[in-house]
Amino acid sequence: MSRTKEHRLALRRNLAASLFQHETISTTMEKAKEVKPFAEKLITLARKGTLAARRRAIALLGNRDIIADEDGEPVRKGTVVGKLFSELGPRYLDRAGGYTRIIRLSLKRLGDNGQLVLLQLVGADESSKKHAKKRSRKKGKAKGPVERKEVAEETAAHDAGQTKEAAEVQETSEPQDSKD
User: Fold this and answer.
1) Are 138 and 131 in contact (CB under 8 A)?
2) For 72-101, what is each residue's pLDDT tens digit?
3) Closest listed residue to residue 76, CA positions, set 64, 88, 67, 85
4) Residue ranges of domains in the chain, CATH in brackets
5) I want to staple 66 with a disulfide (CB 3.0 to 4.6 A). Which of 17, 54, 77, 167 is the partner?
6) What is the rounded CA–CA span in Å between residue 180 and residue 28?
7) What's the rounded mean pLDDT across residues 105-109?
8) Three-class secondary structure of residue 55 per DSSP
9) Which among 36, 8, 180 is positioned nearest to 119, based on CA atoms?
10) C-alpha–C-alpha distance, residues 104 and 28, integer Å
11) Do residues 43 and 27 make contact, with C-beta atoms less than 8 angstroms apart?
């Protein structure tokens, strides 16, 4: 990366701290690939939640403050390590790894035409949606015409603000046409 060792480590620490603070950052592909393993290692430490892990994270990352601007006044909201251990560590307790992702952007940096990417923390709600989609596909059962009719009726009842039982009562009260 054409930097001295100290400069490279400082860059890695600053990018990781910004990632934990904002949960998504825009940077170049090379920098994102450098920071990703470091950030995942720190999240693994945060999952442990012990005092030794917290001290190790402070030693590796530093403990800079999170400052927000409210009514033109800077307000301290906590520290990066505090957020890492109180919010991010518990978020990924049930996840084995892969806490970050790199998304390529179509934008190039003006000065050197560098490839820009988004480095993001994977959300907890996204992983549960992914598992729900996998479960529904594994059943492998195609919906028949009867099941499609039931789903359509439930959708119509939901759109009308009725429950399934109210829709069934309404159907039974209507006269049915018989084509025999």
Assistant:
1) no
2) 999 999 999 999 999 999 999 999 999 999
3) 67
4) 5-125 (3.90.1030.10), 137-172 (no CATH)
5) 77
6) 71
7) 92
8) helix
9) 36
10) 9
11) no
